[in-house]
């Protein structure tokens, strides 16, 4: 399988292995600044969580990677190339995309949903490959013939992940992927995605408002507030108190919850 | 019941014409509405304008919309040449297609606009182009709703297509209009049953297609579409077989006398070896233009009608002078050949019930003036817009308390039941004698004469064999003979005849 290590590294990338680079990226909607002048790099093979409150601009930043939204200033480089200059359909094939709404096509079977990306590129996915992808997300291969309405929410999002992986993407973007799932399913699917990330050698960016999820799954956590990047730390560093006020405010929530639970157990 | 069944079995060609017309109109409506809906789903401005226009069209009564296409097409002849048809299939098709726009457009736009935004985002996310998104996602998901709109449009169109009769397009409206005018309820019912039945069957088949789309069962929508295609194909085939380019087309307006005379003329021509088609129930206003443009070949018109409506004259030179002037005017201006007068007049005249006239002491229009404000006058739907009425009104200074419009048949019923005190009757109407009505005198000769004339279109004007075949009718029909034939058709119960049978009796009476 072709992996991220093979992607070209050009002069605009930092020496090393940056696959994605944001350069002073800004997105305005009239007077409203959704994202204001964000610069950062994402190393190939890393699992990055993009955390922030609602309206902090994290989803908008993510959507500028696969051009669902375009920057009003600055640029996003993918493998050293400005994403707005790439053929849109090809770009989106190289970038798997999973989001909270799941967005399975209700008139397609599960198999057809998974195969849609390659189909758009004129390539027919073999039933064998669809089975493999279903097994990868721990679904029964027999589900390929079912329609999405016959699946549970968790099963649907597993199909959503399989669909995102069907085109052998270099980059996996996830926009609140587990937001609509119950906590148990959410935990299991998070673990599964982290496992696939490692197994397939993916570069993953996950948008979430749940700091606990970010800390548990990601190597690196970016914190956004009011359109700006306010913290860029490893999970370990954040837990050790780095990243500033906003980041620590977000870290405090799951920590205090854990402490309260521990306290309740102690005083039982 | 068996009578209705018998009529239904004879409606084959009208049925086929009705299906072909409706299917073409819906097809044209879809061809315009569906691309427009796709465009509208991307632009709220287009959606507003398109839906606004379609809603506006919907507020025009179907009958008026059909009639409006006649002058529109007539003026378009300047662009497309003289061969552009102004009556029959083309205007009916255009008017009905316009009518079908709204339900198709509204459903399609609503369906497209309300598609789940998360699914559309996913379509972008997996890398679909705009065209791929439309073909693979938007259209398949909107299909059941679009189909529901097409279903509604189909039922409307099949119903409204019965009105195409009035602009000379054969349809299931033919028996309905003919039956209404001649009080032949079996004909009316047969026409209604056939068109309602057709609408129900089409609704059921398209419903099958809709459910097939919704439940993604391929066999279901394919079966529904196949059945519809089969029906339309069959109707096309049946019509193609029945089409005769050389046939002489005989028109009739919407009253019994016209139906009878059309049959009388048709029988004479058939005996002379011509093949004949009838365009029954044309709107009175379009008949003259239709014969002048050779959309039809033969009509029976009245001197007073041509004098006032076509020549725009208001004077009254007397019966014979008027006729001579009309013959010359037609030859010079329209190329229509006036073959001759049939021998009777069907003039407008004011009539009252005998008891009511005696009670008020009224024998002439002059006597009526004093009582006018207390009386209700009834006229056919066009009468109070006609120059004849304006002439009478102004000559006598007539004013009525209330003015009501009735279909000619119901005018006499209204007089009988007292819903009208005076009506604008026709002098050749058999019901004047049968109902023992008093025809009021017109001492000022404000009402022009109405000699019935046979008019030939420019297409057949030079056909002397045809003229010879109709020669025996000229000057042969007395007003008494015409009244009798009219009453035989208009009466109810015992002795009621179809226009064809009445024409046969009339032919016997005048020695043909």
Short key terms for the protein model shown above:
heterodimer, A: 268 residues, alpha/beta, Rossmann fold, 6-stranded mixed β-sheet, 4-stranded antiparallel β-sheet, 9 helices, 25% strand, globular, disordered N terminus, B: 512 residues, MetI-like fold, D-Maltodextrin-Binding Protein, domain 2, 5-stranded mixed β-sheet, 3-stranded antiparallel β-sheet, 10 strands, 63% helix, 11% strand, elongated
- In CATH terms, the superfamily of chain A is P-loop containing nucleotide triphosphate hydrolases
Top CATH class of the largest domain in chain B? Mainly Alpha
Radius of gyration of chain B (CA) equals 27 Å
Largest interchain contact: A-B, 23 and 17 residues
Number of domains of chain A: 1
Cα separation of the termini of chain B: 34 Å
- Side-by-side strand order of the widest sheet of chain A: 6-7-8-3-9-10
Biggest sheet character of chain A = 6 strands, mixed
Based on helices, strands and strand pairing, what is the structural class of chain B? alpha/beta
Summed up, the helix count of chain B is 22
- How many distinct helices of chain A? 9
State the shape of chain B: elongated
How are strands sequenced across the largest beta sheet of chain B?
7-6-8-5-9
Order of helices and strands of chain A: EEEHEEHEHHHEHEHEEHH
Mind explaining what this structure looks like?
The complex is a heterodimer of chains A (268) and B (512). Chain A has 268 residues and is an alpha/beta fold. Helices cover 37% and strands 25% of the residues of chain A. Chain A is built from nine helices and ten strands. Chain A has a six-stranded mixed sheet with strand order 6-7-8-3-9-10. In chain A, strand 7, helix 6 (183-200) and strand 8 (203-208) form a beta-alpha-beta unit. Chain B is of the alpha/beta class. Chain B folds into three domains: 2-242, MetI-like (MetI-like fold, Orthogonal Bundle), CATH 1.10.3720.10; 248-345 and 449-509, Periplasmic binding protein-like II (D-Maltodextrin-Binding Protein, domain 2); 348-439, Osmoprotection protein (prox), domain 2 (D-Maltodextrin-Binding Protein, domain 2, 3-Layer(aba) Sandwich), CATH 3.40.190.120. In chain B, helix 17 (387-396) links the parallel strand 6 and strand 7 (402-405). In chain B, helix 3 crosses helix 5 (89-113) and helix 9 packs antiparallel against helix 10 (218-242). The two termini of chain B are 34 Å apart. Chains A and B meet through helix 2 and helix 3 of A and helix 6 and helix 7 of B.
């Amino acid at each position: 399988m072709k992996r991220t290590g093979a992607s070209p590294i050009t002069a605009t990338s930092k020496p090393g292995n940056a696959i994605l680079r944001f350069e002073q990226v800004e997105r305005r909607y009239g007077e409203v600044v959704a994202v204001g002048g964000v610069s950062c790099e994402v190393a190939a093979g890393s699992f990055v969580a993009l955390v922030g409150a609602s309206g902090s601009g994290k989803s908008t930043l993510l959507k500028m990677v696969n051009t669902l939204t375009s920057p009003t200033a600055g640029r996003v480089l993918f493998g050293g190339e400005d994403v707005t200059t790439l053929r849109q359909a090809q770009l989106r094939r190289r970038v798997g995309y999973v989001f909270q709404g799941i967005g399975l096509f209700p008139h397609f079977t599960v198999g057809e949903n998974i195969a849609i990306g390659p189909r758009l590129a004129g390539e027919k996915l073999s039933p064998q490959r669809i089975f493999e992808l279903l097994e990868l997300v721990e679904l029964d291969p027999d589900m390929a013939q079912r329609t999405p309405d016959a699946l549970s929410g968790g099963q649907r999002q597993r199909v959503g992940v399989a669909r995102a992986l069907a085109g052998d993407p270099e980059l996996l973007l996830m926009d609140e992927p587990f937001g609509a799932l119950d906590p148990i399913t959410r935990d299991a699917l998070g673990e599964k995605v982290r496992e696939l990330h490692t197994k397939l050698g993916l570069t993953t960016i996950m948008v979430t408002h749940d700091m606990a999820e970010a800390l548990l799954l990601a190597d690196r956590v970016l914190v956004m507030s009011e359109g700006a990047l306010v913290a860029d730390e490893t999970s370990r560093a954040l837990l050790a108190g780095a990243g500033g006020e906003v980041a620590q405010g977000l870290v405090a929530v799951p920590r205090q919850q854990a402490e309260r639970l521990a306290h309740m157990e102690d005083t039982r | 019941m068996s009578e209705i069944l018998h009529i239904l079995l004879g409606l084959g060609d009208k049925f086929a014409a009705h299906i072909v017309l409706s299917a073409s109109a819906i097809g044209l409506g879809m061809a315009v509405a569906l691309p427009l809906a796709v465009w509208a789903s991307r632009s709220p401005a287009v959606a507003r304008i398109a839906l606004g226009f379609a809603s506006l069209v919907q507020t025009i009564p179907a009958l008026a919309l059909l009639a409006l296409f006649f002058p529109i097409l007539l003026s378009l002849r300047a662009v497309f040449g003289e061969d552009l048809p102004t009556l029959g299939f083309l205007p009916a098709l255009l008017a009905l297609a316009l009518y079908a726009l709204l339900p198709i457009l509204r459903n399609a736009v609503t369906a497209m606009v309300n598609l789940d935004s998360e699914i559309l985002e996913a379509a972008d996310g997996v890398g679909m182009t705009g065209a791929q998104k439309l073909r693979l996602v938007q259209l398949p998901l909107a299909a059941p709703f679009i189909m529901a709109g097409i279903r509604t449009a189909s039922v409307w169109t099949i119903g409204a297509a019965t009105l195409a009769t009035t602009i000379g397009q054969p349809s299931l409206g033919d028996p309905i209009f003919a039956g209404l005018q001649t009080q032949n309820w079996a004909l009316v019912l047969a026409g209604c049953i056939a068109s309602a039945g057709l609408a129900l069957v089409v609704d059921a088949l398209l419903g099958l297609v809709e459910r097939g789309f919704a439940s993604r069962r391929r066999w279901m929508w394919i079966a529904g579409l196949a059945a519809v295609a089969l029906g339309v194909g069959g109707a096309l085939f049946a019509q193609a077989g029945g089409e005769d380019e050389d046939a002489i087309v005989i028109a009739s307006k919407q009253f019994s006398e016209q139906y009878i005379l059309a049959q009388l003329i048709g029988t004479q021509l058939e005996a002379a070896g011509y093949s004949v088609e009838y365009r029954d129930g044309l709107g009175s206003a379009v008949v003259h233009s239709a014969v002048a443009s050779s959309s039809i070949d033969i009509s029976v018109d009245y001197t007073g009608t041509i004098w006032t409506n076509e020549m725009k004259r208001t004077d009254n030179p007397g019966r014979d002078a008027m006729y001579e002037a009309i013959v010359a005017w037609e030859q010079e201006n329209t190329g229509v050949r006036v073959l001759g007068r049939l021998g009777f007049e069907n003039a407008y005249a004011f009539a009252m019930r005998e008891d009511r006239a005696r009670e008020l002491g009224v024998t002439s229009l002059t006597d009526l003036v004093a009582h006018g404000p207390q009386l209700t006058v009834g006229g056919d739907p066009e009468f109070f817009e006609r120059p004849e009425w304006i002439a009478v009104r102004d000559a006598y200074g007539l004013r009525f308390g209330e003015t009501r419009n009735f279909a000619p048949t119901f005018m006499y019923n209204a007089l009988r039941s007292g819903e009208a005190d005076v009506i604008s009757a026709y002098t050749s109407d058999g019901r004047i004698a049968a109902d023992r009505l008093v025809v009021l005198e017109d001492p000022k000769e404000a009402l022009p004469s109405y000699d019935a004339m046979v008019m030939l279109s420019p297409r057949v004007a030079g056909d002397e064999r045809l003229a010879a075949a109709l020669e025996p009718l000229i000057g042969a029909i007395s007003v008494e003979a015409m009244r009798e034939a009219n009453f035989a058709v208009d009466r109810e119960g015992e002795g009621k005849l179809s226009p064809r049978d009445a024409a046969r009796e009339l032919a016997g009476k005048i020695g043909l």
